[in-house]
Write a structure and sequence with these properties.
about 50% helix; Rossmann fold
Length: about 325
């Protein structure tokens, strides 16, 4: 009986062992099938990649559009920032300004006489007695006496010099008019720099089609213009103007000096002042008061605007005369 039980148990163990062996064979088959499927899938992916690589034109337009959309605005910004001003010189001459077109006009001769005295003050013996002798502020007692017209003409005349350069700065931040006078578009300028809205002064200093003339527009208006012009940053800027280039004259077109704080502040930076008066309109009391508001240590001169002169034939014409105090 015991032998019968042992044989039965033996057969049961053999049956279970065979069952486990069969199960192991089935799993191996499944694994082999899965491996073959993976190999086939990998081959298909490789074929698809090869086909895509064989036709790069299908992908290129997408990459190109993405690249252009990212670079175009940057290029446009740099172009606007660095693009020189193109001044219409024929228009300026027709409007009565100093000509840079090799023409000998009466106004050219008058401003030659005016600038010669200013250049002597800036670079001659007297320059040693003046602080920032090459910094000129052009102002007037009251509005509409011709200060911007005078500042622009001075800059144009100095730009004709063979060994001098000129920087024209529109510092009349309340009523800027330099760009309008020159017929050029307004851009970022002095106030944007003082407000730290541009990284470097060179970003608001624009070349022009007149080789020796650069321009800094006034920039945006701001309710703290007085404080910005009186700031340490403005002082450092003027010091750079005065000392970086030994051959440069800087012409500031400033607001009228009576009743405007900005002009009185700028008077502390400049070594010379040109006070523009209009014949038959400017009051002597206004001229005296304007001089009192200027720095007494600066060289002060006067330009009489729209004065009527007689030439050798007795013909009257408008002229411009300079006198110093």
């Amino acid at each position: 009986m015991n032998n019968t039980i042992e044989k039965a148990l033996q057969r049961q163990r053999e049956a279970e062992a065979k069952k486990q062996q069969d199960a192991s064979v089935d799993n191996t088959a499944v694994d082999e099938t899965s491996t073959e499927a993976l190999v086939e899938a990998s081959a298909e992916m490789k074929n698809e990649t090869t086909l895509e690589a064989a036709h790069p034109a299908e992908i290129q337009p997408v990459l190109s559009e993405s690249s252009e959309s990212k670079t175009e605005p940057v290029q446009t910004t740099n172009l606007i920032k660095n693009e020189p001003y193109n001044i219409d010189l024929v228009r300026l001459e027709a409007n009565g300004h100093v000509s840079t077109l090799s023409k000998r006009l009466q106004i050219n001769e008058e401003y030659r006489e005016i600038k010669r005295k200013l250049l002597t003050n800036a670079f001659g013996k007297i320059s040693k007695t003046l602080k920032n002798s090459n910094i000129l502020m052009v102002t007037s007692g009251r509005p509409s006496e011709g200060k911007t017209f005078t500042a622009v003409n001075l800059a144009l005349s100095i730009a004709i010099e063979q060994d001098k350069t000129v920087l024209l700065v529109d510092a009349d931040v309340l009523r800027p008019n330099v760009c309008n006078t020159l017929g050029i578009e307004k851009r970022k300028g002095l106030m944007d720099y003082l407000l730290d809205e541009v990284d470097d002064l060179s970003e608001v200093m624009y070349h022009t089609n007149i080789d020796k003339l650069k321009i800094i527009p006034s920039g945006k208006s701001h309710h703290l213009s007085t404080e910005l012009l009186a700031s340490q940053k403005m002082l450092e800027t003027v010091d750079e103007f005065a000392n970086r280039y030994p051959d440069r004259i800087v012409v500031f077109d400033t607001p009228p000096i009576i009743g405007i704080n900005e002009s009185a502040i700028l008077a502390n930076f400049a070594g010379q002042a040109v006070v523009v008066t209009e014949e038959g309109k400017s009051k002597l009391s206004d001229i005296r008061y304007a001089v009192e508001r200027l720095n007494p240590e600066m060289a002060i001169g006067f330009v009489v605007n729209k004065s009527i002169n007689n030439d050798s034939q007795g013909t009257g014409y408008y002229g411009y005369h300079y006198a110093s105090n």
